[in-house]
Amino acid sequence: MSLYIQSTNFGRGAAWITEAWPYFTRNPLGWIAAMFVFFLISMVVGIIPLGGIVLNIFYPVVVGGFMLGCIAHKEGGSFEFQHMFAGFNAPYFKRLAMLGVFYTILTFAAIILVAVLAFVMLGGFEFFQEIEQAQVEDLSAHATDIMLLSLIAVTLFTPCVMAIWFAPTIIISSEETALSAMLLSFNACLKNVLPFFLYGIVVFILAIIASLPLMLGYLVLLPILSASVYVSYLDCFKSDISDDPTQLLPR
Questions:
Q1: Contacts by 50-53 with C-beta closer than 8 Å and gap 24+?
Q2: pTM for the complete prediction?
């Protein structure tokens, strides 16, 4: 099954959030339990040497499982806790893991480039020695460079996010390879930059609200954002089988 990118209107960026709400409310405990366990696993693996690399590689595999849970909802069922591990099953695992490898390479390349630029722009070892010695009064002299570095970092990491956003869903919904899925995801985000801009504004506001009661709101927000990825996928892609986006299901 081939997938084709389609554009959607600006207002759909907010609708992706509202339409993701029923995915959560059909089985909120399942979503919350899965998110909580994923958070704990990430914390434990993250403190292990090279654990960050492992997390990056298997992140698309877990997301693929979440998307399979969203597909189950679309078919009349609901997301279940075990969907968190569904991406580790064939036939998706190898391509999802390879997606994680490519995503890790991209992000590490961006990190290295930002680090090199920071080293050059901020004065090399001398600046970092000043930071280590808590000479924070010298930071004001580098304010412009730090702001520029922040802008460069956002510019570099945004394409990484665009390339991974739809990629796990594309893999479980088609026969695309990891690289082609990343390219399709990037192009779909680029073609729908306006609704994604609105989506980002809405998510930013919701993130602030969710953080107020001891960040407990994230127990609801994170599942909704996960489901919104699938909702946005249904808007931004169509198949050659039908113009009905509900046909974009795995074989």
A1: 53/104
A2: 0.84
